[in-house]
Amino acid sequence: MRDQKRFAKVMTALMLSAAVASAALTGCSSTESAAAEETQEALAETGETGEAAADTESEETAEKAEGDTEKETAAGVPLSAEEITVSEEYSSDADGEHAIEADGEEASYSGIRVTKTGEAEGDEADFYGENAAVFATNGASLTISDAVIDTDGTHANGVFSYGEGTTVNISHSVITTSGSCSGGLMTTGGGTMNASDLTIETSGRSSAAIRSDRGGGTVNVEGGYYKTSGTGSPVIYSTADITVSDAYLESTASQGVVVEGKNSVTLKDVTLTADNNTKNSDKSDTYQAVMIYQSMSGDADTGTSSFTMEGGSLTNKNGDIFFVNNTSCKISLTGAEIVNEDAEGVFLRAQAAGWGTEGSNGGRVSLTASDQTIDGDMIADQVSVLNLYLKDQSSFTGAINRDGAAGSVYVEIESGSTWTLTGDSYITALTCGEDAIDLNGYTLYVNGQAYEAGTESQGEAAEIVSESSGHSQEENRKAPGSEGSGEERGSGSEERHSGRKPSGEKPSGKPSGKPSGKPSGDSVDASSGSTKTAGSNNA
To answer: With contact defined as beta carbons under 8 Å apart, do 403 and 381 qualify?
Structure first.
């Protein structure tokens, strides 16, 4: 109420000022004088002097500058190691050991530098955390802030959360890995990883910045900068449920995101740039920004995969936007800016490749677009299925199976959404209103019959079956009104093993003899505050 009154007085003063100006132009000096007096009184009451106005303008400028800074950070300005004040150092150069380990305990570290060298092999490292620089297991709760973590070794992950009940919280830290199979963040066995405002850069092969493996878990990432440059190293490789918000993501050799099996990736207001230009195997001859598949290695349960993108942007440098193979999946896009800089690439490719059983290893996709612009073709080969839903003023410009009829394709266009063809298209069923489709001079074939422009149509969605249950994910829904990559298993990315779980029970996560994780000399134990002398970490 006070602000409203103040606003009214300011407006009165402005109008009186206008009156003064008008009086001066017309020569009405008495009116000018009276108006001037009232103007000064009004300005005095509101306190809106020139100095106050200048202060207001200064505040607005400062707010704008702050907003611009936030936008700049979101656009990909990494945190540097020099910005972190380090008061303690931890290191390990022994094969298989950790520099910091939290085993069934609650521990906290801040202002630390962690260095890890040494080698490891296979499943013990990928599944159970051997050789990670920082390792939490057996229900531990580990909190890390203001850390600089560097690893240089094979299978030397930066920070590893293993097992149900284990939680790692890490913030305002820099993680760098240079060896193969060395992710920045790694989560397996049902662990939890919560990260905020990190900078992670990896350069080794099969080294996703945000990574998971057998047993998955839950990963939440807020803010930060995440970049990969190695072959088979997407920014995100998911055999877990991974959510990333308000972050900058970039891959310069691999996919941006890979989802394997019955797992998910959700992106909220992120900036993602992918340049998939290298291959790790001959299982697929296409390149893409996002790959969704099932490797059948045993590292991910079979079932429906999920990829969700809300807001933000995705820029693809080479190949296709989405590639789906040997799995069922749901793709949900809401208000995201998606740009493919490769004119030869398609928006979605669902087709068979080198994973799964020939004849039944296509992609089975339910794609829902809400308030979304889609530019580019879609392809569903003979062993694939596509259900496309355009909602909430979405627009699709492109062709579907422009080379002729192939897999089952259903298109549903809600009122207010549109499809503009850029080539002849072949689908099996259609639901739309009379003004939903612009043929643009091309022909749309629906189950072999040419669609007549300006007519309504009603159809049924194709059945999408989950491999794990054999049940339909869409149940023949009626129309309204009536690391293959990226770290793909043995594929274009991650070098995989047999896929079998190691014999016997899960290892404890420690080599014989627990390392102190500290160099020689006295230093303070961050979790206890006590002072102790560290022994040698050499094997």
So the answer is: no
